Amino acid sequence: MSSSPGTLTPSRPDTLVRCEWAGTDPLMVAYHDEEWGVPVHDDRVLFEFLTLEGAQAGLSWSTILKKRDGYRRAFADWDAAKVARFTPARVEKLMHDPGIVRNRLKIQSTISNARAFLDVQAEHVTEEGERRCDIGGGDPDQRLQHVARIVPARQSPGGCDKGRSRRRRAQLEARSRADRAGRDRGAGERNRARASPGRSGHAS
Predict the structure, then answer these.
(1) What is the DSSP string of 165-203?
(2) Per mean pLDDT, which of 39-48, 98-107, 137-146 is the most reliable?
(3) Of 31, 48, 71, 78, which one is the catalytic site residue?
(4) 31 is catalytic
(5) For this structure, is 35 an active site residue?
(6) Averaged over 86-113, what is the pLDDT?
(7) Tell me: the pLDDT tens digits for 107-122?
(8) SS3 track for 37-99
(9) Which end of the chain is more exposed for a tag (fewer CB within 10 A), N or C?
């Protein structure tokens, strides 16, 4: 049985030897068989996994897969340009959405990542041969064999431009630090406002 759009269903015989992490959860099994390790050439799918893998922090992947449809609805069907324009009011709305992980920092990071994602596109790093390394075909056994050949991970399979990647990573890290600094300043201002005489009712 093959997967239909938006739905993952196992397409391989039950006798297939799978990785232990796939377990017996149908969503995990389908992800293992249909998506894990398969090269991605669609920007929406890349942005989707960037978001979902960030949302997984501290949680299980099966938890995120169960919320996958909710994330797709919440984040504009993975349209990075739309997500990049999300406002603070939209963040507050998402904080009450049971279809996603309601963590403010994870939601805000998705918006920041959308902006960075668009920057990468604007620099044409996403052109074929720039962003993608050849990791082999779509068969899980072939993928595992290929991964074994390219270890250690420090090597750059497929001839990716390591210098460009380092520069891009430095830029994204700088953006992340700036975002954190902005949030810290905002939190400090709110704390000072709460402690001020006008808010506390105490005279100076």
Answers:
(1) HHHHHHHHHHHHHHHHHHHHHHHHHHHHHHHSHHHH---
(2) 98-107
(3) 31
(4) yes
(5) no
(6) 97
(7) 999 999 999 999 888 8
(8) CCCCCCHHHHHHHHHHHHHCCCCCHHHHHHCHHHHHHHCHHHCHHHHHCCCHHHHHHHCCCCC
(9) C
Q: What is the rounded CA–CA span in Å between residue 99 and residue 75?
A: 11
- Give the amino acid at 87: T
Residues 6+ apart with CB under 8 A from 148: none
Q: What is the pLDDT of residue 41?
A: 84
pTM > 0.70: no
Residue 71 falls in the annotated catalytic set: no
pLDDT at residue 54, as a whole number: 95
Please give the structure tokens belonging to residue 86.
Answer: 């999300």
Domain 20-161: which CATH number of 2.40.30.30, 1.10.10.10, 1.10.340.30, 3.30.70.20: 1.10.340.30
Query: Of these residues, 34, 35, 61, 123, which one is catalytic?
Result: 61
